[in-house]
Amino acid sequence: MISTLKKNNWLAVKIIALVSIAIPLGVMAYEFIILGNESVVFLEDYPVAVGVIIIIYYTILLVIGILWILSQLSSLLTLRNETKKNEIMHLQSQVNPHFFFNMLNNIYGLVDKDTEKTKKLILKLSELMRYSIYEGERTTVTLEEEVNYIQNFLDLHKIRYHKPIDIQFKTDIQVNSDIMPLLLIILVENAFKHGVENLRENAYVHIKLKADSKKMIFEIENNFDVKEFPEKEGIGLKNLKRRLYLVYPKKHTLTTTSTNSIYKAKLELQF
Q: Tens of pLDDT along 65-80?
């Protein structure tokens, strides 16, 4: 149905264009061939009524043309917005799946060994999955909601690992602003995946989040094993950069450094 309407609209545009071209050409042909004039001044010596009708016709045509161009621009902007929205949703859907799979494998291995610990892990994991599935579909969440999600993630890892880890998460939220969901968790996941996971001792993850009405600053630092640290940028970080580019163009700064077995990431957002 939509395809048929588009074809009909395009056919109407062609017909109007042909008629618009045919009118002046017809008048000129009549002047040159029928009347035998050597030069032609358009609509000269024609009845005033004819001139008025043609002027009205072209005025209406001009208005229709402008409205058509505006409608096409509107359709193009709508298409671009929908494409952007779909890409953002696709990127958000890629967050966390590998983490959930790993956690399920860990829980499976604990079922017969430590029932109480397994129950705690399942409860925490269900809270994370609920947030990721339901809140992750929203356009924005509050900073406090995102902080609670990160805190549950950290609590889950405290239960999961048998080795001591120095985990610190300090927040200073003066204004509970809105933020894109599942934005900060990628940096936290990387700290555990490329840092804590490969260290036998003295592992640490220090996180700071500060926000007011104008901006948010999120900083994370962790140590890592140089032999295990990836040389290339991972999918998660590429995902984060793309989402920042789409949702916060010219309103964000993301910097990362890795020196002396210490990795630092800093994200600044302007509200």
A: 788 778 777 776 765 6
Cα(49)–Cα(58) distance, integer angstroms: 14
DSSP letter string over the chain?
-HHHHHHHHHHHHHHHHHHHHHHHHHHHHIIIIIS--SS--TTTTS-HHHHHHHHHHHHHHHHHHHHHHHHHHHHHHHHHHHHHHHHHHHHHHTSSHHHHHHHHHHHHHHTTT-HHHHHHHHHHHHHHHHHHHHGGGSS-EEHHHHHHHHHHHHHHHHHH-SS-EEEEEEEEESS--EE-TTSSHHHHHHHHHTTGGG-SSSEEEEEEEEE-SSEEEEEEEEE--TTTS-SSPPHHHHHHHHHHHHHSTTSEEEEEEEETTEEEEEEEEE-
Please state which architecture CATH assigns to domain 94-270. Answer: 2-Layer Sandwich (3.30)
Q: How far apart are CA 82 and CA 89, in angstroms?
A: 10
> What ranges do the domains of the chain cover?
2-92, 94-270
In terms of residues, how long is the chain?
Answer: 271
First-to-last CA distance in the chain?
A: 43
* Amino acid, res. 104: L
> pLDDT category, 175, cuts 50, 70, 90?
very high
Q: Which two tokens stand for residue 193?
A: 């995946």
Nearest by Cα to 261 from 203, 210, 200: 203
Location of structure tokens 């927040």: 171
pTM beyond 0.70: no
